[in-house]
């Protein structure tokens, strides 16, 4: 049993079961630590000292953990008194340093544990919700089995905490009984066979301790038993009882630790499952180069979920690939690929016909062009604050860049796609803002209710698909114009750099769009559950990532086209 | 949007014969008297039903200008059907048909169904090419023939749909190898319903990969 793993630091009882187990565990560890500490003391009454302190501390810890509000001093000294009364010959001794440390730490820990106990009752409902919504289809079966186990445990433990607390405060003498009930309850709810003997022994102990007059001593009844072996060795009359107690407490402890291990593991699983967006959110916040990977993983999970979720109409509706195709993005990509492939073949054939200096020169030229295609860097962090972006800068930037290509092509359709996207955002945003500003507009209220997260998601995917399709179209048109007309006054290398710049502008715009739409999703869906909202947000980011990939791929397809353009223009100039 | 087959069409012919207008009429059911010159290729798509089967027509509307010829030729490959269009009010567009036909036959698969279209049939008063001439040319070269009007929409649907029927018949006859996408035919998603939900974002990639 890895007891040393369960130190105060490591075990922060996250719910009553854990706290319970910690109690049992601490009964053992305290005993050990006190033994260890004891060696520092030059005292002759080792065992009695240990027994005394041990019981006091255990009681103390126990009480603290279960949320009793006794002050340490109130507890400790009566306990010591009790031990003195029993043994009759324990020298009065100022509390050893170790005890101070212990009580200090207990005092420190006590409030936190108490406060933590309350919110602990919160996780279970959340956990219960996640399988309940059944949106976590992928792990639904797994989760539900797990949670039924934990639900049962948590539920009864929650009531245990309360009942014990009330028992302890109301009738101090029945604490022992309360505990035995607790153990029964714990073990039934955890599925650990309940040792009936145990409760029997416990009751006996209660009786034995019933002789002790001090109320505080009876409140420590149980912890004192935990140290019963030490106590027993000091006092022969209790030895038989204490050995029984020792064995029972061992059973409880080992059972408790097993349960703790089990519950701890399950809790982690449940927490992880309770927030499926956690991993993605974390990944997205980092915005590292693995973003697309994170998104893809998230999307895969989402797809598996939606595959089981028959009612997922939104997913069907907001199908990026279909929308991208509807905007003729696929056709333009296909056409661009054809041109790229044919250009590549042309370049190869030209290279085979050349030799000597001509070949070296051309190779160098082509190498330079290639470089501008590999140097393209897109830093997502550079994206300007979307708030100040009015869309004109996007069109202007594109138009200026396209002019530098010296081919007749405009950013008109891209500008329109961009405008459409922002019109969609405004349509969704204005109602909510108007709602805040003007209360009278009942028609606005209607629009607010009409705009669901699914609508926003659909708009987002549509906008991304449209802007991406137009971007591909733009590149396709550039390719056609490059092949169609000989470009004067600009080199292919310069054109390559301009195209890289255009790619960055386009990808930035995609990023801005995705951010705007996810912000919109978060606003509109502020009342939605994470299971509803997170997949939608993830979906938008994923398709934005897809969009950027499409655009960058299309940009790469332009390389052979520019090479052909370069070959043709140099051939023209040489004539 | 599930379809049993996807047919790729190309529209070819001299500049100004009304290729883009035919496409616009077919896809959007509207007529635009002044149309920008097509650069390279533009696209249109529409779903039709033949023999109870949903068929998606993916139409590549090519530029008619001579200067774009070398580029547009690249797009012929992988077309299942072609609409070869001339203008009944301009004899030169009819005279160029042989060149267009040679080009098309050379750069596409031999089984491609070609529909000869005499457009602008609404301009009867300015007719330069008789209907019989068109029919004769079609017969001679093994084409289907129709006179259409993109303006009045006369025969536009029929032109596109009859071509599709011909392709469909060829599939039934086993002339077309539908598994070879170079023939301009794609089989729709087998389990359309599940696929559309399953593929999600993959859809684009799958389709994108399909044309590589």
UniProtKB/TrEMBL annotation, chain A:
The keyword Phosphoprotein applies. Residues 130-143 have a biased composition (Polar residues). The keyword Phosphoprotein applies. Keywords: Phosphoprotein. Pfam families: DUF719. It comes from the Eukaryota. PANTHER family: FI01459P, PROTEIN FAM114A2. This is Family with sequence similarity 114 member A2.
UniProtKB/TrEMBL annotation, chain B:
It is found in: Cytoplasmic vesicle, Secretory vesicle, Acrosome; Endoplasmic reticulum membrane; Golgi apparatus membrane. Keywords: ER-Golgi transport, Golgi apparatus, GTP-binding, Lipoprotein, Membrane, Nucleotide-binding, Prenylation, Protein transport, Transport. This is Ras-related protein Rab-2A. Belongs to the small GTPase superfamily. Rab family. It comes from the Eukaryota. SMART domains: RAB, RAN, RAS, RHO. InterPro entries: P-loop_NTPase, Rab_GTPases_membrane_traffic, Small_GTP-bd, Small_GTPase. GO terms for cellular component: acrosomal vesicle; endoplasmic reticulum membrane; Golgi membrane. It comes from Hemibagrus wyckioides. It is a lipid-anchor. One of its GO terms (biological process) is vesicle-mediated transport. SUPFAM superfamilies: P-loop containing nucleoside triphosphate hydrolases. GO terms for molecular function: GTP binding; GTPase activity. The keyword Lipoprotein applies. Pfam families: Ras (PF00071).
């Amino acid at each position: 049993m890895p007891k040393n793993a369960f130190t105060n630091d490591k075990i922060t009882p996250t719910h009553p079961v854990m706290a319970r187990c910690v109690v049992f565990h601490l009964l053992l560890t305290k005993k050990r630590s006190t033994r260890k500490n004891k060696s520092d003391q030059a005292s002759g009454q080792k065992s009695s000292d240990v027994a005394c302190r041990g019981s006091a501390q255990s009681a103390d810890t126990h009480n603290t953990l279960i949320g009793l509000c006794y002050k340490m001093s109130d507890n400790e000294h009566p306990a010591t008194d009790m031990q003195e009364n029993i043994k009759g010959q324990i020298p009065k001794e100022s509390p050893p340093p170790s005890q101070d440390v212990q009580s200090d730490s207990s005092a420190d820990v006590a409030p936190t544990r108490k406060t933590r106990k309350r919110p602990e009752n919160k996780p279970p409902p959340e956990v219960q919700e996640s399988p309940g919504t059944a949106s976590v289809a992928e792990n639904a079966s797994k989760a539900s089995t797990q949670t039924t186990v934990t639900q049962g445990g948590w539920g009864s433990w929650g009531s245990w905490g309360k009942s014990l607390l009330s028992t302890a405060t109301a009738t101090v003498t029945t604490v022992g009984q309360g505990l035995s009930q607790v153990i029964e309850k714990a073990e039934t709810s955890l599925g650990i066979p309940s040792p009936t003997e145990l409760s029997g022994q416990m009751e006996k102990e209660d009786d034995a301790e019933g002789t002790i007059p001090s109320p505080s001593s009876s409140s420590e009844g149980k912890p004192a038993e935990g140290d019963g072996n030490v106590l027993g060795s000091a006092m022969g009359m209790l030895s038989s009882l204490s050995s029984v107690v020792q064995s029972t407490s061992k059973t409880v402890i080992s059972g408790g630790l097993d349960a703790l291990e089990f519950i701890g593991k399950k809790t982690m699983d449940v927490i992880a499952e309770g927030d499926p967006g956690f991993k993605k959110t974390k990944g997205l916040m980092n915005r590292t180069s693995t973003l697309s990977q994170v998104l893809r993983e998230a999307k895969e999970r989402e797809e598996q979920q939606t595959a089981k979720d028959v009612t997922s109409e939104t997913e069907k509706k907001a199908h990026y690939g279909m929308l991208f195709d509807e905007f003729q993005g696929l056709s333009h990509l296909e056409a661009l690929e054809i041109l790229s492939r044919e250009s590549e073949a042309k370049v190869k054939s030209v290279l085979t016909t050349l030799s000597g200096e001509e070949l070296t020169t051309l190779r160098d030229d082509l190498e330079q062009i290639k470089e501008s295609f590999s140097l393209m860097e897109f830093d997502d962090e550079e994206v300007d604050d979307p708030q100040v972006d009015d869309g004109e800068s996007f069109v202007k930037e594109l138009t200026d860049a396209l002019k530098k290509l010296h081919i007749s092509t405009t950013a008109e359709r891209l500008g329109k796609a961009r405008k459409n996207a922002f019109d969609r955002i405004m349509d969704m945003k204005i109602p909510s803002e108007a709602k805040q500003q003007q209360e009278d507009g009942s028609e606005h209220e209607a629009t607010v209710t009409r705009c669901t997260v699914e609508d926003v998601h659909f708009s987002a995917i549509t906008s991304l698909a449209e802007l991406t399709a137009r971007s591909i179209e733009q590149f396709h048109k550039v390719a056609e114009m490059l092949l169609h007309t000989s470009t004067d006054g600009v080199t292919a290398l310069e054109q390559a750099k301009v195209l890289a710049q255009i790619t960055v502008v386009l990808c930035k715009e995609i990023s801005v769009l995705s951010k705007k739409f996810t912000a919109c999703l978060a606003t509109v869906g502020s009342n939605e559950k994470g299971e509803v909202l997170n997949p939608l947000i993830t979906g938008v980011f994923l398709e934005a990532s897809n969009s950027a990939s499409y655009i960058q791929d299309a940009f790469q397809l332009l390389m052979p086209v520019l090479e052909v353009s370069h070959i043709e223009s140099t051939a023209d100039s040489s004539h | 949007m599930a379809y049993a087959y996807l047919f790729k069409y190309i529209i070819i012919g001299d500049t100004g014969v009304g290729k883009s207008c035919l496409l616009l009429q077919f896809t959007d059911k509207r007529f635009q008297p002044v149309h920008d010159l097509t650069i390279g290729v533009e696209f249109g798509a529409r779903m039709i039903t033949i023999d109870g089967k949903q068929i998606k027509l993916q139409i590549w509307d090519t530029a008619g200008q001579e200067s774009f010829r070398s580029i547009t030729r690249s797009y012929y490959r992988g077309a299942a059907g072609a609409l070869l269009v001339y203008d009944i009010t301009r004899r030169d567009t009819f005279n160029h048909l042989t060149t267009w036909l040679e080009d098309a036959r050379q750069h596409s698969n031999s089984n491609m169904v070609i529909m000869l279209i005499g457009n602008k049939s609404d301009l009867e008063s300015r007719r330069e090419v008789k209907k019989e001439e068109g029919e004769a040319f079609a017969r001679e070269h093994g084409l289907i023939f129709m006179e259409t009007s993109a303006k009045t929409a006369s025969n536009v649907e029929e032109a596109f749909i009859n071509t599709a029927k011909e392709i469909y018949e060829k599939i039934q006859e086993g002339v077309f190898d539908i598994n070879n996408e170079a023939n301009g035919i794609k089989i729709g998603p087998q389990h359309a319903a599940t696929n559309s939900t399953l593929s999600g974002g993959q859809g684009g990639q799958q389709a994108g990969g399909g044309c590589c």
